[in-house]
Write a structure and sequence with these properties.
Layout (H helix, E strand, L loop, with lengths): L2 H11 L4 E2 L2 H4 L16 E3 L4 H14 L3 E4 L16 E4 L6 E5 L4 E4 L5 H8 L4 E2 L12 H7 L6 H4 L6 E7 L5 E5 L10 H5 L8 E8 L1 E2 L3 E9 L2 H13 L6 E6 H11 L9 E9 L1 H17 L4 E4 L3 H12 L1 H5 L5 E4 L9 H15 L2 E7 L7 E5 L4 H20 L24 H14 L33
Helix pairs in contact: 8-10, 8-13, 9-11, 13-14
Length: about 475
Amino acid sequence: MNKDLQEILKGIVGGKNALLAPEEILVYESDGVSLIKGKADAVLLPGSPEEVMQIVKLANQHQIPFVARGAGTGLSGGCSAQQGGWIISTARLDKILEIDTVNRTARVQPGVVNAALSETLYPYGYQFAPDPSSQSACTLGGNFAENSGGPHCLKYGMTSPHILGAKIIMPNGELVSLGGKVPGNTGYDLLGLMVGSEGTLGIAVEFTVKLTPLPEAVETFLAVFPTIEKASQTVSEIIASGITPAALEMLDKLTLEVVEKFVHAGYPQNAGAALLIELDGVQLQIVEESEWVKKICQRNGVLSLEKAEEEEHRKKLWLGRKSAFGAFGRVTHDFFVMDGVVPPSKLPVIMKKIEEISVKYQVQIANVFHAGDGNLHPNILFDIRDKEMVKRVLSAGEEILEECVSLGGAVSGEHGIGVEKQNLMPLMFTEVDLNTMQKVHDFFNPQNLCNPGKIFPTGKTCGEALPGRYLSVASWI
C-alpha cells in the first residue's frame, strides 16, 4: 500500500488507530480457528460510523477488499482477510447509546461486549438473552454477523429474534437503517437477511436490541451419567416431554476431567458424561418441571443429580461450562471445534458415530455442546506442527459434518460457514440453491469487496488438496 493511501487512512481514524506495521497486523491473522489465516495490509480502528463510511468508500475507490472484525472470537475463519486488504475493527464502537425500559429496548454499538450489556441491564431487571460461550469477550457485532446462539438459546432463541433494528454501512459506503423499536412486517425482511450474513452484505454500526426480563426463579442441576449414551437419551426424553429448559448442556468424560482441573467447579472425574440442566420461569412452573426432569434422569440411570442451592454454586457450574474451550488449551497445542447440528432424537446415534470417527482417524475428541437443540461441539485435539495429524483432523471433521447432514441435520448451528465449511455447502444445498444465494450476495455486494472469499464454495482448493471437500491444508499452515 502506497504512502499516500496510508496517510489518508491515518487522517480518517488517527495515526494510532491505523495499524500498518507487520508485527501489529500479525495478531489479526485469524479468529478462534488457528488453522485459518489471512494476511491483511492494514488494520483500522474507526471511532464512529462516519469513519467506517469513509473507509469503505475509499476501499471502493481503490478496489481494495475489506473485512469487518469484532473481538475475533469467531470459529469459522469469518473475519480473516483471505484476499488481503483492510480489516475494519469495530472495537472502538463500544457505546451503549440508550436503555429504554418502557419499550424494553436498547441501542448499542457493535463493539459492546455481550456480557457487559447484560451486566449493565441487570439493575433494571433485564438481560440480553443470547449468551455465546465466549460472551465475556465476544461483541454484539460478531453475534449479529454469525446469528450466534449459546446455552440459553434453547429457550430464548438465537441472536436474530433479539435484533429489532440495525444501521448498516453497505458495501458501497452508503448508510441504511433497517427496523426500529417495534417489530415490523412491512416489505421484505432485509434485517432478517442481514443477521447471520457473516459480514458479506455490509458492516453494522448500531443495533436496537430487545431486552428480556430476568426470570422470577431459576433452578440449575448437574446430572451425572455412566455413559454419554445415557445422557443423550435423557436429553431426547426431556425435549420430547414438552419441557423447554432454559439450557440443556452436555459435557463428556474428557471435558469433565479437563475443565475440573482448570476451574474446580465440582464436576465428577469418573463419569461418562454430565448434563447441566437449567429451568427458569415462574416458581410454580419450575417446581413441576423439576420433578419431571428428575424422573426422566432417574429412568435413564443417573448416577447423581445435584441442585445448585446457592447462586455462587450455580455460577461455578456455569463457569466450568463456559471455560471449556479455554481449559482445552491446558492439554493440547491446538483444537478444532465443529458446530454441526442433528435433531435431538439423533443424539445417541451421532455420539456413537463421533466415537467411531475418533478411533478411525486416531484423534482425541472432547465433546461439550448445546444438547437441547442438538447443536454439537466436538473439539478435535491436535498439534498444528504435525502436518500428518492435521490431515487426519480435517478428514475427521468433514466426516462428522457429513454424518450430521445424513441424520437430518446441518453443517453449522451458530459458528457460521466462513472459510471452514464453504466447500461443504453442497451437502445441504443444490446448485440452484447456491446460485440463488450468490445472486442475492452479488446484488448487495456487486464488487465482492466486502468480506470476499466466504460462505460460497470455491469450486477448487489451493495448495495440497485433501480427499473430499473440506479444508485446504497447505494454504493455511
